[in-house]
Amino acid sequence: MMTPYQCFRLFLDNEVIDLIKDFSNEYAAQQGEAMNLSRDEVLVFLDIHYFSGYHVLPDKEMYWETQKDGGSPFIREAMTRDRFRAINKYLHVADNLNLETDNRFAKVAPYAELSKKKFKVYAPSKQNLSIDEAMVKYFGRHGCKQFLKGKPIRFGYKVWCCNQQTGYLVDFEFYQGKSTKTEKNVLGVGESVVYTLVNRLPGRGYHIYCDRFFTSVPLLTAMAAMNTAITGTVNSNRIGKCPVDNLTNAERGEMDYRLSDDNVLVTTWKDSKTVYMASSGSSIYPLSKVEKTQRFIQSYFIPF
């Protein structure tokens, strides 16, 4: 029965506000300035950014204009333009003098880690989770910026995400090439993402859904030992020696299934081409007929 603002403040609480305040004051001091930023000013500064998301003007400086056809009394009364400029100039969420050398997102790492902690604390209790990639829109210059052709967000940062069915973000990890913080000694690249994110979840007994980039029979076997089930599409070269029919000459709608040597269910069915799936937590029955639909979902990720 919480209000939207109360829910929002669970994730932007005083711990987060103090992190922004302290690191911003610290950075200003390193530049020879005494900022004396307070909690209330941090909240007002963020409020102005949120407000400008739906009250859009061509330039941020225009919010302090006094003409009738521009400006905003709401913002003018909340904070002066010079103070806003100063906070914007020195805004930091990490100590510039003590950045992690092996983390290409070191400048936002403290805030990111604090957010991950809060996402888990307030996550509704759900068994079914999805692991996939998401994009944070970004057009500037950064070594981790990606270009994904044909995606809703083509330019930006790629992020590995663990979500609930409702879209709630439980955990995430920035993709930063070879230095991505995943269990690299576990199976392949995609499988290591699943292993790492699941290993950081509280408790066990989850059922994870993912696509063929992540899924393999060895992954399902490794996760079963952690009391975690996996279901996902899978490439034909990742099913081991499971003797499932590839349905090359089959009619559309036909299917086949087998259990692998590791007791993983591998299924094929004929669509326009053969689709492979593997699961350690689902049965082949009951069978049902469904209508094929196409849905394009654009996922938004809060940029740091």
Estimate nothing, just give the exact number of structural domains: 2
Order of helices and strands: HHHHHHEEEEHEHEEEE
Q: Which descriptor suits the 3D outline?
A: elongated
User: Count of helices?
Assistant: 8
Compute the gyration radius: what is it?
A: 24 Å
Number of strands: 9
What share of the residues lie within helices? Answer: 25-40%
The SS-based structural class is alpha+beta
The pLDDT mean sits at 88
Low-confidence segments: 293-304
How much of the residues is beta strand, in percent? 15-25%
Biggest sheet: strands, sense, closure? 9 strands, mixed
**CA distance, first residue to last residue:** 28 Å
Gist of the model:
The chain is an alpha+beta fold and 304 residues long.
Structural notes for this entry:
This protein has 304 residues and is of the alpha+beta class. The chain folds into two domains: 4-90, no CATH class; 122-279, no CATH class. It contains eight helices and nine strands. The chain has helices at 4-11, 14-30, 39-54, 73-78, 81-90, 109-121, 189-199, 217-224, and strands at 128-137, 145-147, 155-164, 169-174, 207-210, 229-233, 255-259, 265-270, 274-279. Strands 1, 2, 3, 4, 5, 6, 7, 8 and 9 form a nine-stranded mixed sheet that branches. Strand 2 (145-147) and strand 3 form a beta hairpin. The two termini are 28 Å apart.
